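Good morning C.,

I know you're traveling, so I'll keep this short. The sequence:
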Amino acid sequence: MSDSKKSFLIINRKAPYGSSAARDALDVALTISVFEQPLSLLFMGDAVLQLLPDHNASAIGQKNLSANLVMLEMYDIDQLYVCRHALEQRGIRPDDIKLNITLLDQNGIAALIKQQDQVLSF
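The C-alpha cells, ready to paste straight into the viewer:
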C-alpha cells in the first residue's frame, strides 16, 4: 500500500504587515495541517520579521500576527526553517525568535525545496 500523503513547503517572503500574504500563508498552513499532510514553513527575506515576538499591530489597525504563529505548535506544525542570510541582513539573532527554528543557508534551502512534493510561495 502506498502512502498517499504529499509533502508541502510554504515559503514566506513578505513582511508581517502591509499585505495579506503573511496571514494567507498561515491560513494555508493551518488548513494543510488539518488534513495531516507533512508540512514545512520556510521564512525568507522580510518574512523573518514575522517571527519576532510582541508585534504591536494595533497602531496600523491590524491584528497581531505573532499571536497566530503560536498556534503552529497546536496544529503540530513544527518544521520551521529560516534563511540565515535574511536574519543576518536584518540584524536579528536566532535567540530573538521564540519559536523552535532551523537555520538554513542557500544550499540547505535548495535541498529543502527539492525534497517537497508541493511548494507554495507567498
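Safe travels,
E.
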